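Dissemination and training. As part of the outreach component of the grant, students in the summer workshop were shown how a complex can be specified as a set of sequence lines and then modelled as a single object. The example used during the hands-on session is reproduced here so that future cohorts can follow it. Participants entered these lines:
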Amino acid sequence: LAKTTQPISMDSYEGQEVNITCSHNNIATNDYITWYQQFPSQGPRFIIQGYKTKVTNEVASLFIPADRKSSTLSLPRVSLSDTAVYYCLVVLYNQGGKLIFGQGTELSVKP
Amino acid sequence: EAGVVQSPRYKIIEKKQPVAFWCNPISGHNTLYWYLQNLGQGPELLIRYENEEAVDDSQLPKDRFSAERLKGVDSTLKIQPAELGDSAVYLCASSFGGTVDTGELFFGEGSRLTVL
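and obtained this result:
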């Protein structure tokens, strides 16, 4: 079962770029990588998903190297409102797209 | 468009009492999920429905937990009897189809259960 490992916490300042790296050494060929964001007292919210190389949307970029054993979520120019927990997940293709959440990275953005 | 609606938002009960949580998914979403989230931890899947069929309930403690989605739309999760360790947030999520293609689940705000 693909397990993800990511830092427990990170600190940043407003305006900085934040990169959160996740390792998923046991990822299977057909699995995808997806990231979610969660604010206190709310359910997680989808940020981005990718399979390989780079994916970008209006919120973030996701970098996945060729071996796909890790991925990096990049948040450009963070603001105080980006303070949240960020989860890296592997979408298990052979289990109907099952999502397994890890402990997540608690990002704290300071002024 | 309305998101995933859950009720109640908060529930406090004494141990051994029953409790039920209700979820109304986004219109048109045929896949529905119940997750449990303990403080400081990521959500853990309890059960996944495709329409009215429970396709993955391997993590549901069936001795005290039950769930139903009779008409393939809204769903109820029940705990009977509740134990102290059941204190957590119960999250409902839905998606159109599975997550294989997009990985995108839409979560409700959750129901926070406190068992005294």
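DSSP finds no helices and eleven strands in chain B. Students were then asked to discuss how this feature might be tested experimentally.
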